[in-house]
Amino acid sequence: MFSFFKSRRKSEQYEMIDQNVLEENISQSRSSSDSQSSVVFEDIENYTNKSKETKNDFYNDPIFHSILSRYKNQGIKKSIISIISIVFVLLWIIGVIVYSQLSPKQLLNKTKWQTNIKLFGQNITLNEYNSQFKNITFDNWRNGDYMTYQESITWLTPEQYPSGNSGGYYITPRKDQFLLKQINTDFEDIIINSRKFPYKNNFFHISDIIINPSKSIEELNNNHIIVSDKLAQWRHSTFALYWLYNPILATYTPIQPPNVETNVLEKLHFAEFSPDGNTVAFAFEHNLFVHDVSTGEVHQITNDGSTNIFNGKPDWVYEEEVTANDRMIWWSPDSSKFIFVKLNDTNVQSVDIDYYIKQNTEIGMQYEQSNEKQYKNLNQYPIKTSLKYPKPGTNIPIVSIYTYDVKSKKVESLSDKDKTLGDEFILYQAIWVDNDNFLMKQTDRTSKLFARKVFNGNEVTRIESFNVTGKYGGWVEKMKPINLAANGGYIDNCFENGNNYICLFDKAASAEPKIFNKYPTISEGIYNNQHNCIYFLTSAKSAMDSHLIGVNINTNEYIEYTSLNEDGYYSTKFSKNGQFLSLKYNGPNQPWQRLISMTELHEQEKEHVEHTILEQPIINFMDKSLKNLENTNIPTTTFNEIKLEKEDISISIKTIFPPGFNPEFKYPLLVHAYGGPGSQTVQKQYDLGFLDVASSTLNSIIFVIEPRGTGGKDWKFKSYANNNIGYWEPRDIKLITSEFISANKFIQKNKVAIWGWSYGGFTTLKTLEFDNGEIFKFGVAIAPVTNWLFYDAIYTERYMNKPQDNPSYNVAQISKVENLKNIKNFLIMHGSADDNVHVQNSMWLMDKLNLANIHNYEFHLFPDNDHNINYHNGNSFVYKKMLNWLQNNFSS
By C-alpha distance, which of 133, 167, 129, 117 is closest to 29? Predict the structure, then answer.
């Protein structure tokens, strides 16, 4: 299917390498200069050819005779020359052997390219290895040389289209301009010419643009929102300046709360248009405001915002575990009102985070700018911040819901007398289905009891409720978006027979949906109103694949837009009306991105749909990605499913072989672990990243294992994590790893390591603890959870319930620390300002290690770094440190 791509990924029994392309690239790069000796012959040949071009014959050239006489007349015998040459070659070989630490037999075998090996009983075709090419390197990876280029597409709505056109979108290219484009045409226009603009003797840097939702983008007398000077707060939220931009006047008017100082610009939490574009709602210091675009009038809606009260904005735990967004405000379709959430964190306990290096302006953790004084850009005292962070069994935020009427400017509480979920319920999702009906999805604090409710007028009605754990052994977590369908209906995900499927509710108050259950879904459903069709992604081929499916609502006819007969991991970004698509093929081969008109696909016969997709132009600079990989040896990656016969389940595996892999050699093994409930790390994506770099740098095999409880499969597989955090992960990882080592003689048993980050750090330590030095000799845990009593309540109780209700919390910690004595060495790294997995986790563990008199570990602290460890070169350093540490231990 994708034979013209340079292949690097192999999956299951398929041999997907493109030998023709590889051989063509290699033949173009090879010359007669394959060795030092060939350079001499090449120079002589060049000189000979050059001499033939002159009038004098080569043999009459005086320079030639001068060189010839040295060997003819100086009395050196041929036998002596031969002996000297042999000695030189032997010394050269010995030097190479010593340098490479390989035996002569290994060195000779190294020159042979091993094209096929067997793994898990299947034939694997390796990527070609050429000794004249370079291997992938850490520095090139950090430089972005292996990055797969993609275009960031933002589709316009039909209201925003230029007149007479459709399929419009805008992009932010690598240059300063914001460009307006149209699908698969040469049309291009400039929305904003430069990322910098002046205001009152200062320059500001544009990071984003929010197009007015109600008017054509070509209408010059229009207003858009410009975002500038962002400062990250948490994973999604930021502090930023927001401006109303008028294209015809080229003016930038700051959106600000009333009564601010004239010469001071305050950063807001967010700003967004109403659907009609006439009003902007924004949040500042946890209060809500509305700005009338036509008059410039600003009205303050709430006055109680503080470090304890969040109006229209999620606190840390809601943003991280529930909304995955920076706001909790929903406009009605007619723009007459909106609903917002007030989170009360008064009884939620705080965690203090100190900053030792960062300046005031660099710290987004604060609710307000710090007043701490600095001495010559030095913090004489740490800057102290406080974070509301509920932990298991402690108080969580209390939710209350309000409506705001734009015309009357009245705020009213939404009264819900249903107490089925308790006072500490969680609001997971909400949407206006129409102008009168507001749909909500709520759970109890442990995410086990689920309720679907509708607010209409002044009443809240519970449509359905059930016990999620009792129904399918699962839990409720961050949800896929709800999307609207025709005639007041909406599309959601529903559970049936152990899987999630796309379902259609015909109205807000419907309790029984129509379920499309031929293909399990792993995405939201997108509705195309023109063709009455729903699109979604499925893992029907395997847990590691993602394919695009369409279903006609009236006929129940399904279309595979990407063939389930082929390996592939696709992602989609549809326009709001479902009529245009940015389709990304993410692997296992070289990724591409195409823009698709769904109308064009619907006009094709089923058998021609995929061909029509591949006829569309590629827009993601794939040729540049391929160019960067020319003359480069890249590791070989395989994907497999390992069946555990006794449990009747299968485990997803990814294996990476280093360049030039030879099954006759012995290699270190590095296992990468994550294992969080419902998570997924093994997917058939082309990802030439750190794991490939580690394989190449360490000349090591990399193993990635998806243990029980993770995602991509049905709820039977995921439910193993219920009340069992820390139990199945180490057992599955040890079992699969030990079986792999036993079945393959090319593993150095004394050089087996495991590493992970965050939940993966916890899994790493639990595996080392459980293994007791039998299989794993080394480990690296980055920002690890070490005791789930330290992590946030909503995430932890989702899988473990409250501590007082579940004795398994004793398993969900690193408890048998004495077992860590039996491994050779392990490394722990953590950021001091980690707002997610607090450094308390590592401090608690090191105290346990000290008490147990354990010395075989190292610890590295990154000052002022959060969970990503990316401050002051931290992100590069943490990976380089791990590589060097592993290399030293593998060499010892």
Answer: 133
pTM of the model as a whole: 0.86
Task: Give the CA angle between residues 430, 434, 437 to the nearest 5°.
Answer: 60
Q: How far is CA 94 from the centre of its chain?
A: 46
Residue 563: C-alpha distances to residues 203, 426, 593, 606 (Å): 51, 39, 17, 11
> Got the DSSP string for 422-471?
-TT-EEEEEEESSSSEEEEEEE-TTS-EEEEEEEETTEEEEEEEEEHHHH
Listed in order, the ranges of the chain carrying CATH 3.40.50.1820 are: 632-813
Q: Please provide residue 849's backbone torsions phi and psi, each rounded to the nearest 5 degrees.
A: -65, -40
CA 825 from centroid of its chain's CA atoms: 30
Using an 8 Å Cβ cutoff, are 291 and 255 in contact?
yes
Task: Please give the Cα distance from 620 to 194 (Å, whole number).
Answer: 23
What is the biggest distance separating any 2 CA atoms in the chain, rounded to whole angstroms? 112
Rounded to 10°, the helix 759-771/728-743 angle is: 70
d(CA 354, CA 345): 21
pLDDT in tens, 387-429: 999 999 999 999 999 999 999 999 999 989 898 999 999 999 9
Q: Hey, which bits of 328-405 come out as E strands?
A: 329-331, 337-344, 350-355, 383-388, 398-405
Helices (H), 34-103: 36-52, 62-72, 78-100
Residue 154, beta-bridge partner list: 170
**Beta pairing class for 526-528 and 270-273:** unpaired
- Residue among 726, 730, 757 nearest 829 (CA): 757
Q: Choose among 663, 686, 664, 682: nearest CA to 119.
A: 663
Four-point Cα dihedral 380, 382, 385, 390, nearest 10: -170
395 DSSP 8-state letter: -
Cβ-based neighbour number of residue 497 at 10 Å: 11
Angstrom CA distances, 609 to 536, 549, 596, 614, 879, stand at 16, 12, 11, 9, 43
Contact 628, 581 (CB under 8 A): no
DSSP state letters, 127-191: PP--TTSEEP-HHHHHTTTT-------EEPPTTTSPTT--SEEEE--SSS-EEEEETTSS-EEEE
Q: What is the pLDDT of residue 137?
A: 95
Q: How many CB atoms lie within 10 A of CB 59?
A: 9
Q: Which CATH class is domain 632-813?
A: alpha beta
Q: Which two tokens stand for residue 454?
A: 């509708």
Q: CA quadruple 674, 678, 684, 685: dihedral positive or negative?
A: negative
CB-facing half-sphere around the CA of 167: CA atoms within 13 A:
16
pLDDT recorded at residue 8: 43
Tens of pLDDT, residue by residue over 27-75, are 333 333 333 333 333 443 443 444 444 434 444 444 444 444 444 444 4
- Strand-pairing partners, residue 584, are 571, 593
Map residue 550 onto helix, strand or coil.
strand
Distance of CA 289 to the CA centre of its chain: 34
Q: What is the pLDDT of residue 62?
A: 45
H or E element in which residue 109 lies: helix 104-110
Torsion of CA 428, 431, 437, 441, to 10 degrees: -20
Return the residue matching tokens 């000349």. Answer: 699
Half-sphere exposure of 796 (CA within 13 A, CB side): 28
CA dihedral over 215, 184, 582, 318, signed as positive or negative:
negative
Query: Cα separation of 424 and 401, whole Å?
Result: 13
Residues 6+ apart with CB under 8 A from 475: 447, 448, 468, 469, 677, 722, 798, 799
Cα distances (Å, whole numbers) of residue 75 to 12, 70, 79, 81, 882: 65, 9, 12, 11, 59
Which token pair is 481?
A: 């978006």
Q: To the nearest 5 percent, what fractions of the chain are helix, strand and coil?
A: 25, 30, 45
pLDDT value at position 79? 61
Q: Please identify every stretch of the chain with a pLDDT value under 70, giving residue numbers as ranges.
A: 1-85, 87-115, 164, 173-174, 367-376
